[in-house]
Amino acid sequence: MVTLCHAPGTCSMGIHVILEEIGKPYEIRKIDFPNQAQYKPEYTAINPKSKVPVLIRDDGSVLTEWPAIAMWLALTNPDKKLVPADTEGMIRAQEAIAYATATVHMQAWTRIWRTPIYSEIESEHPRIKDRGKEMFAKGMSIYDRQLDGKDWLLGDFSIADCALYFLEVWAVERGNIPLPANVAAHYERMKQRPSVQASRKYDGFA
């Protein structure tokens, strides 16, 4: 049985959804971010990066980084069809996920939500936050165009939708940031999936 190291409300929500989509038994190890548990030896012994998600696999090996965990789960459960089987589709999934995790999350959202990382000077914080909001809006507009005429990013539901989902949660539930029409509709569709409902209940968004 795999174990997901998860902090409620973080990007690991998306991996939780994938695990629910797969439907096999798993465990969750809650990492208490408010109390800085990610920096304590008990956790850094598992992941010295002090990040989530982390997946502890059946053989005890540890897998880190959202894109790698999502792809491994999809590829080792091919019957769930969580990633396209063809090369072009798989690359497009990686493209959508990389943009969500590396740009919209790490570049845009951190400027909004973890502003002191960029400057300890409080007078500079509004400018940094505004830049983050501009970057976030650009990211959502790109996904909005990709969703035009489609229910899901790649046509069929995939792990790429789970990456977009955690960004949608942050925008709506934490940032009061309006989503463009196609992305907002995607968020509503995601919330109808039992896998997402289970994740939201665990994280307190239900």
Provide the fold topology.
Layout: E1 2-6, H1 12-22, E2 26-30, H2 41-44, E3 54-56, E4 62-64, H3 66-75, H4 87-113, H5 125-146, H6 159-174, H7 181-191, H8 194-203
Parallel strand pairs: 1-2
Antiparallel strand pairs: 1-3, 3-4
Shape: globular
Radius of gyration: 17 Å
CATH architecture group name of the largest domain:
Up-down Bundle
For the record, the count of structural domains works out to 2
Q: Please give the largest β-sheet.
A: 4 strands, mixed
CATH topology of the largest domain: Glutathione S-transferase Yfyf (Class Pi), Chain A, domain 2
Write out the strand line-up for the largest beta sheet, numbering strands in chain order: 2-1-3-4
Secondary structure category: alpha+beta
- How many β-strand stretches? 4
The total of helices stands at 8
Identify low-pLDDT runs. Answer: none
Mean of pLDDT: 97
- H/E element string? EHEHEEHHHHHH
CA-to-CA gap between the ends?
A: 26 Å
Helix content range: 40-55%
* Beta-strand content estimate: 5-15%
CATH class of the largest domain: Mainly Alpha
